[in-house]
Amino acid sequence: QVQLVESGGGLVQAGGSLRLSCAASGSIVYLASIKFTGWYRQAPGKQRDLVARITTGGITNYADSVKGRFSISRDAAQNTLYLQMNSLKPEDTAVYFCYAGTDAGVYYWGKGTLVTVSS
Q1: CA-CA distance, 82 to 102, in Å (whole number)?
Q2: Is pLDDT at 119 greater than 90 in this prediction?
Q3: Are 6 and 113 in contact (CB under 8 A)?
Q4: Which residues make Cβ contacts (< 8 Å) with residue 27, sequence separation at least 6?
Q5: What pLDDT does residue 86 have?
Q6: Per-residue pLDDT tens for 41-88?
Q7: Is the model's pLDDT at 4 over the cut of 90?
Q8: Distance separating alpha carbons of residues 39 and 108, to the nearest angstrom
Q9: pLDDT score recorded for residue 117
Q10: Cα dist. 101→34, 36, 37, 77, 108 in Å?
């Protein structure tokens, strides 16, 4: 099993920055099976949308709404995923979820961390 725990959320003014972290733990065999990691977010009354993703090979994808402002990175040695969020906008307000998936179709989710961006 894999457990994901997000941290780093909070309240920030528009234009500010936050860095989210996602710490993964669990059995080595499960951790080794992870090929895709990333971040989704869900605003009140909205669907959960992909924010950014990174593969174990370092290939990244970003939602158009965050390109140029957010940066995803991964510290494989520490089993930690990061999301650097710059130039935050009120529309970035959401619960951010850490995600991990395997090629076998097993998916893991954290419980989320709330990011609130005030205008």
Answers
A1: 19
A2: yes
A3: yes
A4: 1, 2
A5: 98
A6: 999 899 999 999 999 889 999 999 999 999 999 998 889 999 999 999
A7: yes
A8: 11
A9: 98
A10: 5, 5, 6, 18, 6
- HSE-CB of 83 using CA atoms within 13 angstroms: 35
The Cα angle at residue 100 between residues 22 and 108, in degrees rounded to 5? 95
Distance CA 60, CA 108 (A): 19
Alpha-carbon span 115 to 67, nearest angstrom: 18
Q: What is the DSSP string of 69-107?
A: TEEEEEEGGGTEEEEEE-S--GGG-EEEEEEEEETTS-E
Is residue 15's pLDDT more than 90?
Answer: yes
Query: Which residues make beta-bridge pairs with 41?
Result: 49, 96
Q: How far is CA 50 from each of CA 5, 70, 99, rounded to the nearest angstrom?
A: 18, 12, 10
For residue 52, give the H/E element and its range.
Answer: strand 48-55
Are 40 and 107 in contact by the 8 Å Cβ rule? The answer is no
